[in-house]
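Sequence and structure are kept together here, with a separate record for every protein. A complete record is shown below as an example:
=====
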Amino acid sequence: MLLGLAWTACATPGAAQSTALRAPAREAPALEALRDRLGASLAERSRLGERPRALEAVIDPAGYWLAPGDELALGLWGSVDTVVPLVVSADGLLIVPTVGAIPAAGLTLADAEGRLRAVCAPLYPRSTVTLSLVRTGLLRIPITGQVIEPGVYEAPSSFRLDDLVALAGGLRAGADARAVLITRAGSAGPHACDLLAWRVLGALDGNPVLRTGDRVQVPAARGHYRVRGLFPEGEAAPRAGSSLVDRPFPSETRIVPARAGDTLGFVLAAAGGLGAGGEGVWLERDGAARAWLSREAAEGEPARPGDIVEVPFSREWVAVSGAVQRPGLYPFLPGQTVADYIGLAGGPNQYGRTGGWRVYGPQGERVEPGPGGAVAAGAHILVPERRWYKFWTVLTPLGTAAAVVVSVAALLTKS
């Protein structure tokens, strides 16, 4: 509330002059009153366990849109030195003593300051008018569609779209992150935001600040790309065989929503990227045989909905499984034989065969080793168990059961 004496005294030029003479004596009480009021407010919020609302940067008056609940400080400096705390009302008004109700809905902080300056100028011609944001208000914004928990959420007026999506539990697997729709009060229709471009490239226009009256809807993706294979975060413990094989360990497939103008470079970045050692990718398109694209070629290659991109690991691998000491993936080295890879796996264990090993190709087909027993990249070597071991694994339980029966029969005979 404005100091009544200051506002009344400035209503006439004579009184304004008189007040100007006393301004130095009034400046301290006015600022002290504001400090006490704000300090009491902060102390009360602290007592209630309410944390200050974090801001990502200093507020830009020209880019901050006022919302109900925003707390402001109106300053008059010059002939009158005083500060008036204001709050944007639920109906979007600023109630200013001796001035009246000033519509603030749909205004930026800079616009509201300009409007207050215009209405205060006739009353206080020798005073400078300022308007500052002290604390942001809260919004209630509905979000529907392909999110984990649709609903209406309370958020500070400085919240961005991605913050609201996080409150709603994140996007579902089939969500179209390329066209999240925001409908604003008074607008002709929804505006599509490319949230994925924000997450991959940092494009802020895909992650706008939310405003009062916004409604958010996340549609289902209409088209997508599939990116499969090995990704940088999996290089320490690879899950797939090689750049040419999805067996014997399943590789991961990631779905990237499609949008006109995409390149394979963007699609790869959205899926996790090639990593430092990636040299290129395999591309399957329109049912044709897959083609190899170098890293440079893939970066600018236009993407089409339905494309399947396979990301290779930084090295080729050969898988060794079955009855060996250390089954797993081993780096492909040209010229290495089946026996060499089994040796890398520690050799057959006590149950493994010493011969008759099986070799499978990248698509799971049975293949014969090359000259000298060499295997190709992406091969899967299987060491079967010995037949006598299988026989004894069945015979041993039967022998044990027979011994128990004989023992029981002998006891019954003696009794």
